[in-house]
Write a structure and sequence with these properties.
With 98 residues, the chain is an alpha+beta fold. The chain has helices at 11-17, 80-89, and strands at residues 5-7, 21-22, 32-35, 40-46, 52-58, 61-62, 67-68, 91-92, 95-96. The chain has two domains: 1-59, no CATH class; 64-98, no CATH class. It is built from two helices and nine strands, in the order βαββββββαββ. Strands 2-5-4 form a three-stranded mixed beta sheet, with helices on one face.
């Protein structure tokens, strides 16, 4: 699995679709058909008050020597890298723990 994907929308359209506040005026995000791990991409986050915002984040976990982006369901709770992230931030139905 390569981890690449395409994004058809710019930051303003993503924010409008998810009813999120936009504070990325310095970041230009045009649609892109070839997004790879290690690039900065827009992510919709929900804060403690339940408000959504659009923030720039790496598409992957950045380790000292490489980018890691692929988790396998059969080893998710065995691998130290993914275990904590899954247990602390997993979604159950429509409710997410952040």
């Amino acid at each position: 699995m390569c981890g690449r994907y395409g994004r058809r929308s710019d930051k303003q359209r993503i924010a409008e679709t998810f009813h999120a506040a936009v504070d990325l005026s310095e970041l230009y995000l045009a649609p892109n058909d070839d997004i790879s791990p290690g690039t900065i991409q827009p992510v919709v986050r929900v804060n403690d008050e339940g408000q959504r915002s659009l923030e720039a984040m790496y598409w992957s976990f950045k380790l000292p020597t490489r980018f890691v982006f692929n988790a396998r369901s059969d080893s998710l709770l065995k691998n130290g890298l993914w275990k904590a992230a899954f247990e602390e931030r997993r979604c159950i139905g429509l409710w997410c723990k952040y």
